[in-house]
Amino acid sequence: MAETLVSPRGGDEPVIEASGLGHTYKGGHTALENVDLSLGIGLFGLLGPNGAGKSTLMRIICTLLVPTKGTVTVYGHDVTRERREVREMLGYLPQEFGAWRHHRAEEVLDTLARLSGLSNRKERRRRVAETLEMVGLDGVADRKVKKLSGGMVRRLGVAQALVHEPQVLIVDEPTVGLDPEERMRFRQLMNQLGRDRTILLSTHIVADLGGGCKEMALLDGGRIEFQGPPEELLTRAVGRVFEVTASSEAAERIESEYEIVSRAVTGTSISLRGVTANGMPAGASAVDAPTLEEAYLAFMAVRGRTEAARQDDEAPEVASAEDAG
C-alpha cells in the first residue's frame, strides 16, 4: 500500500508551477514558448502529438535541461538555482528504462536506492522490499531483469523512481511497447499512486491517463493550449463527434475528409465514428457522450492538427554542458 506523504507546504498551493517558460535549442528549434502551468496533488496528464514539446518540458522540470527563459518551481524550489532540493523531491521514469539486464530486480533497486541517498543498509532493504511490493514485483524480486516482461521492466522503472519516497513523480511515455493487459495494470498503479502525491504523466495516448486523471494539459507547438479537468474537454467535444452509416463509396469519401476513430462493416454498409472541426457528413448524427480520446482528437482537429506531424521535440543537437549540468 502506498504511504501517505505530507506536503512540505500547506493548503492548495501549486506543487509544480511554470511561468513564461521557453526553450530554444542551439540549432534554432523552439520546443517551448511561454508555457504557464500549475499542478497540485493528483495525477495530471500532459498530452500532445509527437514533437509538441512534452519531453523538453519534463526534462526541465527534472533539472536535466536549463530553460532559455522563464521559471519552474517544485514546492517553491527553482529547478535552475536549487537543483539538489528539487531532485530530492522528484522521482523520474524516462521513456527508456531497460539497463541492468544481468542483475536481479532487487539488486537494481538496492543500488539505485543507495545512489539516492539511502545509506543505512537495514532501512534500505526494508524500503526496497516495500517498493517492490507496491508495484507488484515482490514475487519476482530475485529474477534477472532480462527475464522480466516489458510491463515488469516498466514497473521496476516506477519502483526506482519511488524508492526514495519522492513527493513528485515524473513519467514520460510510460506504456510504449506494452501489451493491453500491462497497459491496464500500469494505469491502475498510476491511479493508486496519484492519491497522495503529484504525478505528471506525459503521453500521446489518451487511454494512458485512465479514470484517475485529475486534470489535463494539452501541449501543441510548444504552447499549452488547454489546461483543465477531463470533463471540460469532453464538454467542448459535444457536437464535434459524429456517427454515420454509409455505402462503401460514400464511406471512402468521408474517410478522406474526416478523422475517423472507428469503422465497422455490416453487410454492404459501413458504420463510421469520427471527429470534425467544422460541419458533419451528410446523414451523420452527433454523439451525445464522446470518449476522452475523441474529445482530444476533436480539439486537435479544430486546431488543424489532426494529421499534422512535427519534428520530435528531442532536438538532434546534444545539450551543452550548461544544459546538462
Give a written overview of the molecule.
This protein is of the alpha/beta class and 325 residues long. The chain has ten helices and 14 strands. Strands 6-7-8-3-9-10 form a six-stranded mixed beta sheet, sandwiched between helices. A four-stranded antiparallel beta sheet has the order 2-1-4-5, with helices on one face. The chain has a four-stranded antiparallel beta sheet with strand order 12-13-11-14. β12 and β13 (269-275) form a beta hairpin. The protein is globular and about 70 Å long. Residues 1-11 and 306-325 have low confidence and may be disordered.
Walk me through the topology.
Blueprint: E1 16-24, E2 30-39, E3 42-47, H1 54-61, E4 69-74, E5 77-78, H2 83-89, E6 90-93, H3 105-115, H4 121-134, H5 150-162, E7 168-172, H6 180-193, E8 198-203, E9 213-220, E10 223-228, H7 230-237, E11 241-247, H8 248-257, E12 259-266, E13 269-275, E14 285-286, H9 292-302, H10 321-324
Parallel strand pairs: 3-8, 3-9, 6-7, 7-8
Antiparallel strand pairs: 1-2, 1-4, 4-5, 9-10, 11-13, 11-14, 12-13
Helix pairs in contact: 3-4, 4-5, 5-6, 7-9
Total number of strands: 14
How big a fraction of the residues is strand?
25-35%
Strand-and-helix sequence, N→C? EEEHEEHEHHHEHEEEHEHEEEHH
Shape: globular
Radius of gyration in whole Å, from Cα?
22 Å
Strand sequence of the main sheet, in spatial order? 6-7-8-3-9-10
**Amino-to-carboxy terminus distance:** 36 Å
Give the biggest beta sheet: 6 strands, mixed
